[in-house]
Amino acid sequence: METVYERAKISPFRCELVGDACFSGEYELPILRITRSLPTRAIPFDKARTAKEQNQWVHFYIHDYRFECLWSYPEKYLPLLQRFEGVISPDFSLYRSMPLAMQIWNTYRNRALSYWLQKNGVDVIPNVRWGDERTFAFCFDGIPMESTVAISTNGCIQKKSDRFYFKQGLQAMVERLRPRTIINYSCMPRDIFGPYLDAGMHIVQIPHYSITVRDKGAR
To answer: Taking the domain 24-218, which CATH number applies?
Structure first.
């Protein structure tokens, strides 16, 4: 019998993930289903395998190499992800210093895995990731309007320039997708989120995993 490892060698581009998908945008990104789920806790993918509690969500706001295995062997990790309440979709990086072609490819990979997980019964909140204004031509494609969406400030707002592009992308996302709810993983500075909160937008903060672990240990 052919193993998942042998299939990965045959199909490194994972075309089978989106074999029956519908696509949107110039770059034909898979279209995801709308969700209204509201997680309150999330654990990093690389910690999920040893987690004792599955009544939480899995996120991918970690270094890419820690979840590259999901792209190569999605079938292997599906049973693990199905045990949790849901998944905030994969977050392959869109660094502004990367060639735009690589940013498009990583956006596709994020969307393709999300589509495949939804198809296999996993509740998926679309993660929205952008770079500079060039990425606005594709980074919102495939994500349904008026859905719950997820973003993260983790490692994205440390420099003044990073903060500028994060604000720019957040505004573009709100205008384009008109999300019902925004899930933000990690900190929520007032200068970034204040205008949206003041306007009545529903934004839910999920604390960074390290804070969750710290607070749990303190009890």
So the answer is: 3.20.20
